[in-house]
Amino acid sequence: MNIEIRDAALEARIRRQLQATGSGSIEEVLLRLLETQEEQDRWLSENREAINSKIKRGMEQLDRGEGIPEDQVDAHLAKLKAKPE
To answer: Is residue 20 included in any domain, yes or no?
Structure first.
């Protein structure tokens, strides 16, 4: 199979990925990208119920007025990121 890439920006992105990963070929880059995408898709599929449940809970909290004001979101997220897991 031959694949022709006509978009110069896309070709440049693939070449940058080739250099960044130390891959031996463009085929190897594409294989790695596909494996990563498939892994993400699998994770989303396996966790869809939990994700939807969290979204629903968040929407219910917002409906009850329990949201964080927009001007405080960045500080709140920084605080959460600083907490050890």
So the answer is: yes
pTM value is: 0.65
Distance CA 8, CA 6 (A): 6
Q: What is the tally of structural domains in the chain? A: 1
Reduce the DSSP state of residue 80 to 3 states and report it: helix
**Cβ 73 vs Cβ 62: under 8 Å:** no
Per-residue model confidence as pLDDT tens for the chain (85 residues): 888 999 999 999 999 999 999 999 999 999 999 999 999 999 999 999 999 999 999 999 999 999 999 999 999 999 999 988 7
Q: Which sign does the torsion angle of CA 43, 49, 55, 57 carry?
A: negative
| Residue numbers of the domain that contains 60 | 8-82
The token pair at 82 is 């600083």
Amino acid at 6: R
- Indicate whether 38 belongs to any domain: yes
